[in-house]
Amino acid sequence: MTTTEARPTGASVPARAAKGGASDRAKAERKLGWLLAGPALAVMLLVTAYPIAQAFYDSLFDYRLTDPENRSFTGLNNYLVVLTDQLWWQAVGVTALITVITVAVELVLGFALAMVMNKALRSIRPVLRAAILIPYAVITVVSAFAWQFAFDINTGFVNSWFSWLPGVDPTTDWFGSFGSSLLVICLAEIWKTTPFISLLLLAGLAQVPEVLQEAAKVDGATWWQRMRRVTLPNMKAAIMVALLFRTLDAFRVFDSIFVMTAGANGTETVSFLAYRQTISRLEIGLGSAVSVLLFLTVVLIAFVFIKGFKVDLAQARGEK
Amino acid sequence: MSTKEKTLWIIGGVLIALYCLAPIAWIISLSFKAPSDLSNAQFLPTTASSENYATIFTGSGSDLFLPALRNSFGICLIATFISCVLSMFAAYAIARLDFPGKKFILGTALAVAIFPVISIVTPLFNLWRTIGLYDTWPGLIIPYLSLTLPLSIWTMSAFFREIPWEMEQAAQVDGATTWQAFRKVIVPLAAPGVFTTAIIAFFIAWNDFVYGISLTSTSASRPVPAALGLFSGASQFEDPTGAIAAAAVVVTIPVVVLVLLFQRRIVAGLTNGAVKG
């Protein structure tokens, strides 16, 4: 910090009256800064830090809403129950699987989209941009319904359209087994969130200096070489930020699961497990424990990304 | 660019547009299918029928759908407004003032943005029941701020950082009063950023499902996505598919209109906030 410590002036001295002294000005600026940004910060902490602290406290109790009289302190027992239950590990596995599949596909597809948008002719660019924003802006629940109805055995058209594929016929029940349910869920998630990734990557692409591309071209580098040695290294920060945001977002997947399968056929994710414990079964203690564990997992993922892969948000934001 | 290359890019563009719009076209087409037509196994209805729209606006689904639509609009607009006002001040401080808490505030916003929503639901569900906020508008507006505020702060401070603040002094040198300089110079420069942030914040609030189903129980405050997710038909003999499709189309209209009108700004807002900050 460049601000020097203000010399001890009386608190009664109004900051405005300071005669241009750098330290007084810095002090006044600091005060104004907190005054302006303080409310927003306070609200953010109030709506997240406080509830998660409350969740941690609740998770230490054996507590059912239907049986409030028998609320009793059990220490870390709820965590023991969750962590030794196969349901939890199944949910973690499914969530991780969905995250890895969707993020990997989205990254490749999003990059292709960004390349096309980057090169697209000026005349069709606005059309493309509007089209690509539609999936981003559409409600997740609506997207989930659209995909579910399309694959549904009664209302769908997929079975009749794709009956030439092996294994697809009018009686194919996509939501009848684990693999095919998961496939449809992933398709819906990918459709909905690829545009967001592609926009971030497009912004990254725009930051790659054109001069470098030209120089490499003059030196006789092939398209693939330019891509690998010039484009990708120069947009590493943008890729990493897109990856971090999408991974954390994908790990919270809930809406599509709720609408499409409601956790049937082993498609329950961690978020859905927490929801079911609290809202359906009213097990506040167990639900809180699952919530805290989910929170810790997300923190862990973010930590691994930022420390392990050295995602530098400041650098990505062009502050260096 | 050669003609062949041009054609290739156009084909690529058309493919992307198809990919993005096909599911929307499908849900629109589905919403115009009459009940007898729902399982025709085709993309398009045999004959277009407005029956599903009648169901949700005047028929058996209207007492579920119309209040939900009102709740969604009211709650999302209020949450967007509050978070825009709060983040306007915060973003001004971050972009223009030099104070040590800057990094901490941006860091907190980032942490809140990646927060798993469901983790807050359990304690809020319990707390809201105790203090009487369960199934009320404020009971949803407050948690919605956890979704809209972080994003608003990031996006808006990115916009504010690009404002040439020296223009304010320049105007004052030219004889404008402080208020005039603010109103005639700074407000027009800052307004697009605030407006764009408001649109993106509205999208996020409009999209919420987790809070909607967990913290409400009646049509007093249940927003549309939650009502859709829990809608199972007026009776067990009635297939809700058509009504759901029609309601889905109706709630998609506002976002599509916003996208078509302000696409350039939305893209700038999304990428600025995340990549450039």
UniProtKB/TrEMBL annotation, chain A:
It is found in: Cell membrane. InterPro entries: MetI-like, MetI-like_sf. GO terms for biological process: transmembrane transport. Residues 1-24 are annotated as: Disordered. Residues 92-305 form the ABC transmembrane type-1 domain. Its main location: membrane. The chain crosses the membrane at residues 32-53, 87-115, 127-151, 171-191, 284-306. It comes from the Bacteria. The keyword Transport applies. Keywords: Cell membrane, Membrane, Sugar transport, Transmembrane, Transmembrane helix, Transport. It is a multi-pass membrane protein. PANTHER family: BLR7065 PROTEIN, INTEGRAL MEMBRANE SUGAR TRANSPORT PROTEIN. Belongs to the binding-protein-dependent transport system permease family. This is Multiple sugar transport system permease protein. It comes from Klenkia brasiliensis.
From TrEMBL, chain B:
Pfam families: BPD_transp_1 (PF00528). InterPro entries: BP-dep_ABC_trans_perm, MetI-like, MetI-like_sf. Gene3D superfamilies: MetI-like. GO terms for biological process: transmembrane transport. Residues 69-262 form the ABC transmembrane type-1 domain. It is a multi-pass membrane protein. It is found in: Cell membrane. GO terms for cellular component: plasma membrane. The chain crosses the membrane at residues 7-28, 72-92, 104-128, 140-160, 185-206, 242-262. Keywords: Cell membrane, Membrane, Sugar transport, Transmembrane, Transmembrane helix, Transport. Belongs to the binding-protein-dependent transport system permease family. This is Multiple sugar transport system permease protein. It comes from Klenkia brasiliensis. The lineage of its organism: Bacteria, Bacillati, Actinomycetota, Actinomycetes, Geodermatophilales.
